């Protein structure tokens, strides 16, 4: 068996594997797609010490760094189940089973999409999911935020300080964010709030976003908003379906971890976007991956398992 098997090959998993391998322990990394969400990212400007890079370029460097060490890299492999024990079994979709004394879960998350025409076409060309990442690209421009929960309202407040105007669009007849956030939002001069609205289409000129269409759900009328950017904030879905029932998950399906990345089951650790740790960012995922890997190493040297 492995000493540490990392499930997931995004920034958190890559970082965890490097930290483990540097301890000289038998390390494996199994991932559906090496690089994770970073593969879908066009431009990255907040990976500190690297002024500007592109997703696939950063992924290539991540893989190169992992390959410097003796790590078994198994890609195009999906974990579908897990049986904890003195040696935990991770079951793969192809029927195979991997065994490891400690397991580190870094299977990440994905942003929930609107599933409307134009969304895919203009992804990265005006359609964005992360205000911390892409907010500054829309300086002085008009944007919409889709979703009036805490993430949407936080995003609208954040963006209102950078962009010219924010239209917040909520499906329900009222916002669902905390009262203190709504109060702050209402105090901002360059924000328009639209409730009972269903986004129907992202409009573009072939190169970039130029607007969106929404339906007023109270009377079925269609409205058009001219803008340059759309931030979709309707939920982040952690990739934890395969671990359900084995380790404790939050009501949102995120893996609950302590300050060392330990889950509710001894010997099973987790890091990155898949956990309850807030602020889903590359630099945070890497730091959390390193931390949980050291947590797993501490666990291994304390456990009697040989
Ligand atoms: P992920 O990157 O999601 O990686 C998860 C890994 O687990 C992948 O290898 C995946 O294939 C694998 N996996 C999932 N399920 C399974 C399974 N069942 N079995 C095996 N493997 C599995 N952050 C920034 O800091 N700056 C940015 O500019 C930025 N821009 C972004 C732009 C976009 C479009 C998106 C989507 C995200 C962006 N982010 C950005 C966020 C950043 O990409 C994430 O916070 C980061 O990738 C999280 O890393 P992770 O390793 O936790 O998970």
UniProtKB/TrEMBL annotation:
Top-level taxon in the UniProt lineage: Bacteria
Swiss-Prot/TrEMBL keywords: Disulfide bond, FAD, Flavoprotein, NAD, NADP, Oxidoreductase, Redox-active center
Gene Ontology BP annotations: response to reactive oxygen species
Ranges of residues in domain FAD/NAD(P)-binding: 2-289
Cofactor note: Binds 1 FAD per subunit.
Cofactor(s) essential for the protein: FAD
Subunit structure: Homodimer.
Family: Belongs to the class-II pyridine nucleotide-disulfide oxidoreductase family.
Its biological purpose: Serves to protect the cell against DNA damage by alkyl hydroperoxides. It can use either NADH or NADPH as electron donor for direct reduction of redox dyes or of alkyl hydroperoxides when combined with the AhpC protein.
Protein name from the UniProt record: Alkyl hydroperoxide reductase subunit F
Source lineage: Bacteria, Pseudomonadati, Pseudomonadota, Gammaproteobacteria, Pseudomonadales
């Amino acid at each position: 068996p492995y000493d540490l098997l990392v499930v997931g090959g995004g920034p958190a998993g890559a970082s965890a594997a490097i930290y483990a391998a540097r301890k000289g322990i038998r390390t494996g990394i199994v991932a559906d797609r090496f690089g994770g969400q970073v593969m879908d990212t066009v431009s990255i400007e907040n990976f500190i010490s690297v002024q500007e890079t592109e997703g696939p370029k950063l992924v290539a460097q991540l893989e190169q760094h992992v390959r410097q060490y003796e790590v078994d890299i198994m890609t195009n492999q999906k974990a579908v189940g897990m049986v904890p024990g003195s040696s935990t079994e991770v079951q793969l979709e192809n029927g195979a089973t991997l065994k490891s004394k400690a397991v580190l879960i870094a299977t990440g998350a994905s942003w929930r999409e609107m599933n409307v025409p134009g969304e895919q076409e203009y992804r990265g060309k005006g359609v964005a999911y992360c205000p911390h990442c892409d907010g500054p690209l829309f300086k002085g421009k008009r944007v919409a935020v889709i979703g009036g929960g805490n993430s949407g309202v936080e995003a609208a407040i954040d963006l209102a300080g950078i962009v010219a105007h924010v239209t917040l669009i909520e499906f329900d007849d009222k916002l669902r964010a905390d009262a203190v956030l709504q109060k702050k939002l209402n105090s901002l001069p360059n924000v328009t709030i639209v409730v009972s609205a269903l986004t129907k289409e992202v409009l573009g000129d072939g190169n970039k976003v130029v607007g969106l269409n929404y339906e007023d759900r109270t009377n079925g009328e269609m409205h058009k908003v001219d803008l340059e950017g759309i931030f979709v904030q309707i939920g982040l879905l952690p990739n934890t379906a395969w671990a359900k029932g084995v380790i404790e998950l939050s009501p949102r399906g995120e893996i609950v971890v302590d300050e060392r990345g330990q889950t509710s089951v001894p010997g099973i650790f987790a890091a990155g976007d898949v956990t309850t740790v807030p602020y889903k960012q590359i630099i945070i995922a890497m730091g959390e991956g390193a931390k949980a890997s050291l947590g797993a190493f501490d666990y291994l040297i304390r456990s009697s398992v040989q």
